[in-house]
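Hi all, long-time lurker, first post. I run a small reading group and we've been trying to get comfortable going from sequence to structure in the token notation. Rather than ask abstract questions, I figured I'd post a concrete chain and ask someone more experienced to write out its structure so we can walk through it together at our next meeting. Sequence below, copied exactly:
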Amino acid sequence: MKLVIIAGPPSAGKTSLAKQIVKRFKDELTIAFLKIDVVKAFEDLELKKEFGILTKKFYSGDLCPDHAGVMVLGDAVEWGQKNAAELLIVESAGLCLRCSPYLNQGLGIIVLSSISGIHAPEKMGAMVSLADIAVITKIDLVSQAEREVLIQKIKEVHTRIILMETNALQGNSLNRLYDLIIKSRDIDRDKLMLKGNPPLGTCTICVGKKEVGWKHHFGVVQKLDGQIAEYLYRGE
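-- Answer (accepted) --
Happy to help. Here is the structure in token form:
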């Protein structure tokens, strides 16, 4: 089974890209689709209704959606293989910019909207820097100059990333992506690993403490006047 993980901020065009991939391969491959979200998702229903493929969704609830994705991806791969899927597409919630949902196998695709601003790639950290492919959407809504600046910013974050531009609603200029997918290797579920390192650790806010101010918390804490990536550790 081949694996494609689609990440990116909300409204970038992740689902539109997933639909184009399904449309292209639905007559060649048995496809399964998993949507990971926090509270509500309808993408699985849309793809099932439009293409009749196997779909599933998972709500992360109190967990960071990317952390939840790491926990359930093993089950998702098993689910896809049990249903004889030849291509598993996973669409992330696109909310956490500190984490990365990409694995050491399959293809990781970051979807970026042209209208998100030229500095967007620099704000997204590992979601961009660890992706295999960047698909820039909504290219008809900005000038050529803005598109070129955005591309340059992406290359500054990730020099070896494969770039392609499209209007995902029409699916133009995606032939190279389809070629990369069909030529990608089947995954070995026993050797799946995260491509990048997760964030430093869980803070006490994550586990339910509501008080405001670092002095009320313990574990990994940060001060306003601290340097970037300067962490303190306070015992309970």
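A couple of things your group might point at:
Strands lie at 2-7, 31-37, 54-59, 87-91, 107-113, 133-137, 162-165, 219-221, 232-234.
The mean pLDDT is 89.
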